[in-house]
Amino acid sequence: MKNKKMVLWIALMVTEMLLLGCSKKAEAQENPKTGSAKTVVYNSESDFETKPYFNSYDEDDERNGTIIITAYKGNAKIVNIPEKIKGEPVIIINENAFANTNITSVTIPNTVTYIAKLAFKDCSKLTNITIPDSVVGVGQGAFSNCTSLTTVNIGKGFNGGGVNIFFRCINLKTINIDSDNERFSSANGMLLSKDKTILYEYPSASGTFTIPDSVTEIGDLIFAENTRITNITIPNSVTEIGLSAFRNCTSLTSINIPSSVTKIRDGVFARCTSLTSVTFENGSNIQDTDFGKYAFPEGGDDNYYDTHNTLKTAYSTGKAGTYTRQKNGSTWTKK
After folding, report:
1. How many domains are there within the chain?
2. 96, 198, 206, 324: least surrounded by Cβ within 10 Å?
């Protein structure tokens, strides 16, 4: 009888341990749309390489000891990052942590506050991403070259990020941001400032693209490397075109710059090797100090930048009008 009780007791203990073990990997979460619970199966802690966060300038920082994911080494294509690893909350996804992996889906927990630059670079099979409310910042090129990415949802806590977060995401169709976000908004799939005057990110475009007429500033590098755009319409609301905004748009053949533009930053149309016609509309009066270096292409494939600034020089005396060059030509002249 004692042996039977002992066996029963051991069986109960084993069952309890198994249940406790499973509870670390599965958790019921409520679906906000249906109100029903779904079970999320988290990846094993052993799928991730990590290091503890430590603020060497502040030993009392409450984040000290929390977890930074430095690499994903699992085989699962559907990844659910645990909220805690080694009993501590996961707060940062580090540079290159998931880069060049075969993941198709990733769930980021609401403990994460920062996604570092290039964190998901070259995840060519990743189709969508939701950045939770807890994330405050996203680093430069964090999702660059995610060529299957079509939809991005960004939470209300997002406060800013590096340039070209979605660089070369050639199939990106929609960027949505929570309406309660205090700094950013979205419209027609684009990421804009809250008042819609600054364009930060746009869905991949080909052919003709029209910038909304609420925009006054085109962000740095925003269209850079898009070789499929053939025509850009810049509205007369725009006053500033950011650093290298259209760099290497090699299918762009002509551009009209409205008279509202008062600042063109460095390298705006650099490496646009097919660009042969630039029109500054009537009333244009960009000051020499606000006309960036290497802003327009000059020469052929071996000389992408206007190293002699011939268009800038011609504009300084000619102002409004159309300026042309032969394809691969080295000199811009006013028609």
Report:
1. 2
2. 206
Query: What is the pTM assigned to this prediction?
Result: 0.81
Is residue 19, in this structure, part of any structural domain at all?
no
Residues across the chain: 335
Please indicate, yes or no, if residue 3 is contained in any of the structural domains: no
Q: Residue 307 corresponds to which amino acid?
A: T
What is the per-residue pLDDT across 63-121, written as a single tens digit (0 to 9) for each?
888 999 999 999 999 999 999 999 999 999 999 999 999 999 999 999 999 999 999 99
43 with 95, same domain?
yes
Residue 238: count of CB within 10 angstroms of its CB? 22
Find the domain containing 164 and state its range.
29-184
Residues 141 and 287 in one domain: no
